[in-house]
Amino acid sequence: MVRRAFGPLLGLEAAEHDLAYERAEKLLCDSLHADDYECYERRGYVEVPSRIHEGRVYRVDGWRPVAVFEDGEFAGAICIRPRDHLPGPDVVLARKLLIEGAEEEFLASGNWLSPAWRPASAMPALILALVVLMPWLLRAPQFGDWGIALVASIPVVVAVVWWRGRRTRPRRRDEA
Amino acid sequence: MDAPATRKTKGVSWVGALRILGPDGDSTYTWDPAVDADVDEVRRRFDEIIDQGYLVFELDPGTREGRQVRTFDPRAVQLRAFRPMVGG
After folding, report:
1. Which of residues B32 and A10 earns the better pLDDT score?
2. What's the CATH number where B55 sits?
3. Is the pTM of this model over 0.80?
4. Is residue B87 a part of any domain in this protein?
């Protein structure tokens, strides 16, 4: 009862949390190859190559969704978390082991998050930008050839964005 | 970083370790493959957590990559276990 009343004031729970975190970091250090642990210490994540999808690499940290890169391009993210609280380094270890040892289960359990700049998601932003810029665009021909070139370049930019989105679109989970 | 070599018994220079991840850090169970009582105790705990749905992975001593295991092998050196994860 005393602990429940005064524990938060005295920082007992925070101290326990710190101990759990330190213990988890030690376990992660014991469980990773030296190169992977160095990467984790320097950058906060480890990279795990896929065993079933050629060219795919998962970037794993303890607090964000697992980022998925295909042939070096960001393809999306997979949101997966422990059922109960685990210290951050333990989350890194669990995700890494799950990918290495049971990747299909990892893909089936996690939720795909697609990049926000996919054409379907970017279209409302493009329309809004067009509406905002419309008064200037309508006056652009007054500036001669340069103004006309500016207006003509807009469809090109939209086409490039659309093409990049198609090229890096992640595989759907049922295709994985 | 390498596999622990904390004890040395007849012909065996290592002990196995099963580490179960939890909210307060991991729980560790070690065994000496040459000691039957150790092996039986850890095997019992291993079977319990498998029945509870835990996932267990054996670390490769060289690469440290994980391989999922469903039965206890006393020759394993490093095992890690945790509850299945869910989509966020």
Report:
1. B32
2. 3.10.20
3. no
4. no
* Inter-chain contacts counted by CB atoms under 8 A, chains A and B: 103
Q: Could you list the residue range(s) of the whole structural domain that residue B76 is in?
A: 16-82
Query: Which phi and psi angles does B25 have, rounded to 5°?
Result: 100, 180
Chain B residues in contact with A83 (beta carbon < 8 A) = 83-86
Q: Which secondary-structure segment (H or E) carries B30? A: strand B27-31
Please write the tens of the pLDDT for every residue from B39-80. Answer: 999 999 999 999 999 999 999 999 999 999 999 999 999 999
Domain count, chain B: 1
Identify whether the C-beta of residue A151 lies closer than 8 Å to the C-beta of residue A140: yes
Question: In which band, very low, low, confident or very high, does the pLDDT at A109 lie, cut at 50, 70 and 90?
Answer: very high
Mutate to test the interface with B, among A52, A64, A86 (most CBs of B within 10 A): A86
Determine the residue of chain B that is closest to A84 in CA distance.
Answer: B23
pLDDT in tens, A156-171: 887 887 777 665 554 4
Is residue B27, in this structure, part of any structural domain at all?
Answer: yes
